[in-house]
Design goal:
Oligomer: single chain
Number of strands: 7
Number of domains: 2
Helix content: 40-55%
Largest sheet: 7 strands, mixed
CATH superfamily of the largest domain: Hypothetical protein, domain 2
Structural class: alpha+beta
Distance between the termini: 61 Å
CATH topology of the largest domain: Endonuclease III, domain 1
Order of helices and strands: HHHHHHHHHHHHEEEEHEEEH
Shape: globular
Length: 354
């Protein structure tokens, strides 16, 4: 089987099976760029409402560049990996300042944007401009590895290089089959991602409905469940945090995470990482020995390999406290919904409001 033989049946399959996703209804490179950044490390069903809200409020590069930081972060609230939002706005400002507000039309220009890597650059240029640029994400890597019978992990450099080379050859071949008004670079790259997401799944792949089943080495050798080999995951690390909601006259104290920190720019209640056996002594450390603290809730949340436990205490005080070591703002419970909060602290706020 020559790998190029998959192009025609895959294009035909995609024409009849592509999901109707909102960013597929446009060729606007800005809209496609936003979708591709949002889709990094995030499922399609999660991204759809975020993308729609974003495009309603920030419909073009100029509006993104001019938006207040809090507005951008608020639109991203809950998507995670927040550096993506900051890089989008940084890129929009760069495009406005250096490119006359026009989104770059070649892969080198797209790759020069903050937060854009090889896959994202290829996806934007192929989907928006129908340029024959290759893409290899997790879905494509799995699909190609099974078709070719590659048993090693796609994260191995030699394997990754081979997959990118194959993807490059395939998209160029797909374009060579193109008829007038067809956009085969766009369709073929999306078809590979779509087949990987819907049919050639990591577990329990739907081989019976695959248009490429006759070409698949893994299926012929009964190795679909073992190809490709999965890289070992890093061991999970447990972390514990203690936080405080200081309630004074119906207002609560929130602080902004500083630049350079994870989730920089987001707001949260005062909190500190503590040892697993830490006790109430951390009230003194925080200069919050203001009265009796009651446990409001415990939030468990995961960030990459970290398994975090956040214990939130409620402090009701009659006098406005002097918080010498903390820098933030007093806001009402009604205002808190307007502030972009980190995911764990948004859960705390909802618990507080109930």
């Amino acid at each position: 089987m020559h790998i190029r033989s998959i192009a025609a049946p895959l294009l035909k399959w995609f024409a009849g099976n592509a999901r109707d996703l909102p960013w597929r209804r446009t060729r606007d490179p800005y809209a496609i760029w936003v979708s591709e950044i949002m889709l990094q490390q995030t499922q399609v069903k999660t991204v759809i409402p975020y993308w729609q809200r974003w495009m309603e409020q920030l419909p073009d590069i100029a509006s993104l560049a001019a938006a207040a930081d809090d507005s951008v972060i608020k639109l991203w609230e809950g998507l995670g990996y927040y550096s993506r939002a900051r890089n989008l706005q940084k890129s929009a400002k760069l495009i406005g300042d250096e490119l006359g507000g026009r989104f770059p039309r070649d892969v080198a220009g797209v790759l020069a944007l903050p937060g854009v890597g090889r896959y994202t650059g290829g996806a934007i240029c192929s989907i928006a401009y129908n340029q024959p640029e290759p893409i290899v994400d997790g879905n494509v890597a799995r699909l190609l590895a099974r078709l070719l019978g590659i048993e090693q992990s796609p994260k191995d450099k030699a394997v990754a290089d081979r997959l990118w080379s194959v993807a490059d050859d395939l998209v160029k071949h797909a374009v060579s089959l193109q008829k007038p008004r067809q956009r085969n670079a766009s369709a073929f790259n999306q078809a590979m991602m779509e087949l990987g997401a819907l049919v050639c799944r990591p577990r329990n792949p739907l081989c019976g409905g695959c248009p490429l089943q006759g070409c698949c080495t893994a299926r012929k050798e009964n190795k679909v469940e073992t190809i490709p080999a999965l890289a070992k995951r890093a061991a999970a690390t447990k972390r514990r945090f203690i936080g405080f909601i200081i309630n004074w006259r119906g207002k609560v104290f929130v602080q902004r995470r500083p630049s350079g920190d994870v989730n920089a720019g987001f707001w949260e209640f005062p909190n500190w990482e503590v040892s697993a056996d830490a006790g109430a002594a951390h009230l003194a450390k925080a200069n919050l020995a203001l009265g009796q603290a009651e446990l409001l809730c415990v939030i468990h949340h995961s960030v990459t390999r970290y398994r975090n436990r956040l214990e939130m205490f409620l402090l009701r005080v009659s006098r406005k406290p002097r918080l010498a070591k903390l820098h933030g703002e007093w806001i009402s419970l009604e205002e808190i919904d307007k502030f972009p909060l980190t995911a764990a602290h948004r859960k705390v706020a909802k618990r507080l409001q109930t």
